[in-house]
Amino acid sequence: MMQTRESLRSADEEREELENGYLTDFQPRMMDWNASRIFAVKNIRIAIRYPTNVLIWGLLPILWLAPYLLMMTAVAGPGTSEYFSEVSGFSDFLQFAVIGWFIFKYIDASIWSIGNNFRWEQFSGTLEPLFVTPVPRISILLGAAFSDTVQTTISAFILLFTAMALFGVSYTLVAVGPIIVIMLLMIIAFYGFGFMLAGMILVFKDPSVLTELINNAVFTVSPITYPLQVLPAPARFAAYLIPSTIAIVVIRDLAIIGTYDLFLFLQSIALMCGILIFFWAVGIGVFNYGEKWTKERGSMGGF
Amino acid sequence: MTQTESSSLHEKMMKRGGLRAELRAANALSIKQWRVEFSYPLSVLYFIVMPFLWFLPMLLAGTAVAGSPTSSVFGTYTGTTDWVTYIAIGSAFSGLAMSLFWGTGMAFRREQNVGTLETLMTTPIRRDTIVWGTMLHNVQHGGLGVILQLIFSVLFFGATLNLWGVFPALGIVVLAVIGMQGIVFALTCIVLLAKQGWMIIEVVSEVFLIIAPISYPIVVLPPILQYVSLASPLTWSVDAFRSFLMYGFLAPGIIQAVAALLIIDILFIVVGSLLFKYTERYVRAQGALSQF
Q1: How far is it, in rounded angstroms, from Cα B157 to Cα B164?
Q2: Is residue A8 included in any domain, yes or no?
Q3: CA distance A212 to chain B (A)
Q4: Could you tell me which chain B residue has the CA closest to the CA of A213?
Q5: Domain range for residue B271?
Q6: What pTM value is reported for the model?
Q7: Do the chains contact at A75 and B71, CB–CB below 8 Å?
Q8: Which sign does the torsion angle of CA B83, B87, B88, B93 carry?
Q9: For chain B, what is the domain count?
Q10: Among A119, A132, A273, B164, which residue's beta carbon has the most beta carbons within 10 A?
Q11: How many folded domains does chain A comprise?
């Protein structure tokens, strides 16, 4: 009898809470910044629990970069080659590659971290609760992207400073302002790229294969270790569709030479803004379609 | 199935033993892994495209500094100016090594993640058969990758192979697998003890790949790494595999490479097997097999 009274009271309280609470006032929105912030803080809290991950992701790329540099040394001799200077406009291929790999850290993160975020929630068993939360999915993805940018920036600087010390290369900080502007545009453009991948991963499930495939394809056509000029013309065109290509070219010039033609710089900014809008539109579109497709088939929680 | 039939099948299973039974179990594990991989359609595409995508950046980086498929600097280090063929063969072989390190090293963790590790461990087979079975799958998987990459390299990038060296090169693959299985046993121990062992596998496998003459001769490494490199089975395997495929039967320095590989193989497989035996026993005694 007492239990029935208690449950009746609790049902009344719940109804009252619902009537006055968030759920009844809830209106679907395009973006919930509060949800993004909470999700980003949650991810950063988890990351802080595993600090070695940030360190190891800063140091591991050196093990991937070293074979390229050793191979280039074996083929052309230490540091430089006449042909390389001719096609790239830079004399030192070590200096050329290290800054490229620094930027590649952000490409890698956008593909692996943002795109795979929902897959990891699925592995943790929290995907379904997350999807019934009354907030726009894009806010959740954006939150994940913010937290990944923080972690990637730390790892990227660990990589840059370690590689500079190991390979004896240095860069100028004269144009640090323009570098930051270009970097920000690239990172925001990559968020759209990450949303697109997140949608694809919801559909295809197995993220390792898709992610590896895209990561390797993007790496191959990007001017990270070698200049764009060595790519065949169609691949060079494809490279310019990736948000990082223009950024790598401009940042490399600014970090090595310290100057860049003002008109070309503004042109690059305009191009990057165009790419940013394109990737956000495509990314949100693909993600929404992927989510709808998965929900209709009831395969959201399937592996 | 009646109860009598079920119990007779169970008795038959418990009585099984011997090398033939273990080989059948290893083969069943290999087939199971193929089925899992082919249930993801993108895996098939990945499998075909990846050997190509792994090699391409190396080729482009080499082209950016050499400007042509030959390099006299490379000739002074390696004895051949054809750096494209040198890197194509090395890079193809590294695909096999990666497949063994990752595929086999993480086998226990994978079974644990899908909830089948305890079932597998209570199956009446030797524990190391689980590792050998996964290795069998990864040799097939990685081996097909090597073949695909070599075909791509010959057809599209102008690599030249000496067909007389194909059979002896296969012999080197067998020796390489034995040595690398020793490393894989050690990696499996790390996974069993540390559970989330991917980080260690990544570092260990990358270090083995860096010190091996995959896309450059070891002479470009710092002196201390050159000495460490000589103790790795991967170094001698890649060297001998490439020598046979580039120069045929009478490849220079091949006897020395095969002899060194035989000695290293024995050392690695004995140490690796013992490590696995004692680690697996320790983990079970601690009741930590299914812990995440």
Answers
A1: 21
A2: no
A3: 8
A4: B46
A5: 18-285
A6: 0.82
A7: yes
A8: positive
A9: 1
A10: A119
A11: 1
